[in-house]
Amino acid sequence: MHALQIVSWRVAVAGRWTARILGTLMFLLFLAFFFGEGPPDLSRLTSTERLQFLCITVLFLGLVIAWKWEGLGGLITVAGFAFLVAINANHLRMWALCVPAIVGAMHIASWARLRVGVPARLAPWHVPRSAVISLVAALVVFLLLCANEMFGQPPLMTPTLHPDSGLLGAWYGRGTYVPADNSIAVEFIIHPDGSVTGTVGDATVTAGRITYGRSWFGRLLNINSPYRMTGQLSSVVRVSKEVWGDRFSLPLGIRGEVLDGSLFVRDRPVRLLLTRRQAGGLQP
User: Fold this and answer.
1) Does a structural domain hold residue 158?
2) pTM for this one?
3) Domain end: 98, 118, 148, which one?
């Protein structure tokens, strides 16, 4: 029984420092995304989206609070994740949110064991320095890989895209700017060399390219879209008074027989579903 207490104590000490290091790196990653992508314009979000943003902020903030109040910080993080799942169960499939919640649970478990006290006659014990160094090195690599995925086309570990038959050809559809319910006709033609031509409204696409939108690491964490299309337009396109510009980006993925994504013009998303145009077919 005494041996079990000693083992559980040492596991709790190791768990505390593992959770602290993981939590700190994840909070720094959250800040990198927050300032790299820019804070969301809360006035343009729905009440549900505002609540989700609040829960995500609370989830990562709890990891920092756990340095001072371990049990409270872990509880705040787990509660933030629980509310996210209550709002939308799809959050259970997002590793970028699940991992912080697991770290929060580690804080709670470590706090619950360590608050009981040190087992009697336990010799002084610390986590070996080599183990700490190895853990920090692994976490730094993890953080760098995550930071790499912040870019629309990760500059590292992302091969050149050579579109196959699933992407090649002409795709058309209508993009809808949901708040104003405005729409715009678009057509993109994807070529074998990865170049893209076509039209967005009355403007012609110039310097268009399609690339991978994430690396293998992004696929593993299920972040970012599989592909990303970018380009310039021959003239300014106006979808609404909020959405206008002569450049665009389009993160997208394949869903069945359609390309599913959001067309960003002046950093405003326009919902877009693209259908392949059959040879000789007419656009409805």
Assistant:
1) no
2) 0.63
3) 148
Longest dimension (CA), the chain: 85
- Give 88's Cβ-side CA count (13 Å radius): 12
Nearest to 78 by CA among 93, 95, 61, 90: 61
With bands split at pLDDT 50, 70 and 90, how would you rate the model's confidence at 182? Answer: confident
- Looking at the predicted structure, is the pLDDT value of residue 151 above 80? no
Q: Which amino acid belongs to residue 141?
A: V
Pairing of strands 244-255, 258-265: antiparallel
- Which CATH number characterizes residue 257's domain? 2.40.128.120
HSE, side-chain direction, 13 A CA sphere, residue 55: 21
Residue 180 covered by a domain: yes
How is residue 55 written in tokens? 């829960």
Would you call 190 helix, strand, or coil by DSSP? Answer: strand
Domain hosting residue 35, numbered range: 2-148
Residues 6+ away with beta carbon under 8 Å from 56 = 30, 80, 84, 97
Helices 2-37 & 95-114, crossing angle to 10 degrees? 140
Residues 125, 45 within the same domain: yes
CA distances in angstroms from 270 to 150, 163, 174, 186, 275, listed in the order given:
21, 24, 9, 11, 16
Q: Is residue 156 part of a domain?
A: no
User: Whole-angstrom Cα distance, residue 109 to residue 117?
Assistant: 14
Same domain, yes or no: 25 and 138: yes
CA atoms within 13 A on the CB side of 138: 9
Is 22 in the same domain as 143?
yes
Q: 127 and 14 in contact (C-beta within 8 Å)?
A: yes
Q: How confident is the model at residue 284 (pLDDT cuts 50, 70, 90)?
A: very low
Average pLDDT, the chain: 84
